[in-house]
Amino acid sequence: MNCVRFMSSLNPTSVVAATPVVYEPPSAPTSNVKNVDRRMEVTLGFPKDITATIVCDLGVPYTFGLVPTIPKIMLLVEGELGSLEFFNFVMPTFYHSITIKIKGGHTRVEKVYKDTEGNGEEWWSTYRFQLEALVDHIRGREPEVWLEKQDSVDNMEWVEKVYEKVRVYFILGDKLEMLTLKKCSPDLGADRNQPI
User: Fold this and answer.
1) What is the pTM of this model?
2) Hey, where are the domains in the chain?
3) Could you read off the pLDDT of 124-147 as tens digits, one per residue?
4) Which residues, in sequence order, are CB contacts of 47 under 8 Å at separation 6+?
């Protein structure tokens, strides 16, 4: 959520769609309450007809059933002139790439392990940069990047709006297949005659 908001410099205007996959432990008892999502796919609406889709899956299957799969952490921005793909923006110290593709033309791949004008070392993690920004802020210096507390509040508000959208999945669970709610009680948060 934070990455999409940061890269667009906008707050969403709506949760267009949201689909969870509920976590089911392999040896869950029959009394297991299915109220934890393992995967969530969300489409957010933004001003100027911009949309963003977020897919988060905490249950990536093992390769050959034995070897843990490396998670795919990436941001893809598509525009009129081309696209930008930022691979592994969460922990770029280990490996990352920034791929810029111009429609009908040039593709460029960059890796930036140290900013030529800023602080830091190639081996610094994103967490180290956050710590340096905090120290700068506390000591009255201007950090390279500083997020105000409202940014965190906005992130959580939009995460909550996503869960409001999918709340019925966790209430009805398995009974939701092919279901269209014709009449809902107000506590379900759905409008009358609105398909889910």
Assistant:
1) 0.75
2) 73-113
3) 888 998 999 999 999 999 998 888
4) 10, 13
> pLDDT tens digits, residue range 25-61?
888 888 877 778 889 999 999 999 999 999 998 887 7
The mean predicted confidence, pLDDT, of the chain is: 83
Tokens standing for 19? 């689909």
b or e along 115-130 (b: 16 or more beta carbons within 10 Å of the residue's beta carbon)?
eeeeeeeeebeeeebe
CB atoms within 10 A of CB 32: 12
Distance CA 46, CA 52 (A): 8
